[in-house]
Design goal:
This protein is 88% helix and 0% strand. α1 crosses α2. It is rod-shaped, with a radius of gyration of 47 Å. The N and C termini lie far apart (124 Å).
Amino acid sequence: MQLSSAIFTIQHHDLSEFFEWDQDVYFVIYNVFNDFLQSLRQSSELYVEDLHSRTVQKNELILILFLTSLGMLLVTMVILCPVVGTVNLARLKVLSLFVDIPNHHVIGLGNKCERFLNSFNDAEHNDE
């Protein structure tokens, strides 16, 4: 059955004569909406392809960012480990200097500081 003959037959129907099971009505509706349905399917497929390509691009970007941050972390660790070791050795050397001072020198310096502070306080009270 051709579309033109079905359209011609439907043109002469009253509104009350349009039924779903009528072959002419079904043929016209099917052929009219078929192009619309195919275009909707094509549009959906293009949308899914675009969404897939964007997802792949974002995954690649996230992977690149993750790998660069991991690389930066490793480089930082390689640089910081020797620096922290060197600082720790210097700290131990400085602390060992204080431990090596004999007790009688520490007591003598403490007494000198105490005498100085007392004389300083006495000088302030005299100024008042």
